């Protein structure tokens, strides 16, 4: 009986071992199959990934080659186009500069012409007529002295003396405006007329001046007075008209202006 019980226990223990070993073997088989399947999937994924990378790399190489080819073939054209544009811009700037210079030169010439015209107008000389018809008996003298019979000495003479008869008519030497009519202590009754260009004429040693008044505009040849003998500094001399011309308030030689 005891042997039989032992044998039954041993038989049960062996069955348990068989079941455990079988389970382990089955687990090993299942694990191995699963691993193989998973490995195959990984290989396929890796291959697919490699193909995509390879394709992307190929495209990159082609793009790079295309870019390089474009740079080689078209770079000259691009540089030429850029240089052409720069030359065009520079040419345009040069043309504008030349036009501006031409315009400025034209303006400057016009300004110079206008200035010259104005200058000519400013320096335009007036032609003076003789105030009386007599001859000149005493010349203009500022550097060379002339002898004064009245003063009995050599003196300067700021005008010229015309021989004339007493009460002879005195005429305006040029168009102008009567500036003053006064009794000068040296030259007696005197009329001063202002003219264009900074000129003045002086008529002295007069007898009368009732033909004009101060501020009156007179014309060349118009009667302004008569010859007298009122000049104290020249009272010992023959009757005459003392005549002066001033330019910018400075005495000038009347003989240089009388026609």
Molecular structure report:
The chain has one helix and twelve strands, in the order H-E-E-E-E-E-E-E-E-E-E-E-E. It has one helix at 2-122; strands at 136-138, 141-148, 153-157, 160-163, 169-171, 176-184, 188-194, 199-208, 217-218, 223-227, 240-247, 250-252. The N and C termini lie far apart (187 Å). It folds into two domains: 1-124; 136-256, Glucose Permease (Domain IIA), CATH 2.70.70. The strands form two sheets. Strands 1, 4, 5, 6, 7, 8, 9, 10, 11 and 12 form a ten-stranded antiparallel beta sheet that branches. It is α+β, with helices and mostly antiparallel strands.
Summarize the structure.
By secondary structure, this protein is of the alpha+beta class. It has two domains: 124 residues; 121 residues, Distorted Sandwich (Glucose Permease (Domain IIA)), CATH 2.70.70.10.
* Count of discrete domains: 2
Give the DSSP E fraction (strand runs of 2 or more residues): 25-35%
User: What's the helix count?
Assistant: 1
| Major beta sheet summary | 10 strands, antiparallel
Characterize the overall form.
Answer: rod-shaped
First and last CA, distance: 187 Å
* Percentage of residues in helical conformation: 40-55%
Any low-confidence stretches, pLDDT <50, length ≥5? 64-72, 115-123
Integer-rounded radius of gyration:
65 Å
Please write the string of helix (H) and strand (E) elements: HEEEEEEEEEEEE
Overall mean pLDDT: 76
Determine the structural class based on helices, strands and strand pairing.
alpha+beta
Strand elements, count: 12
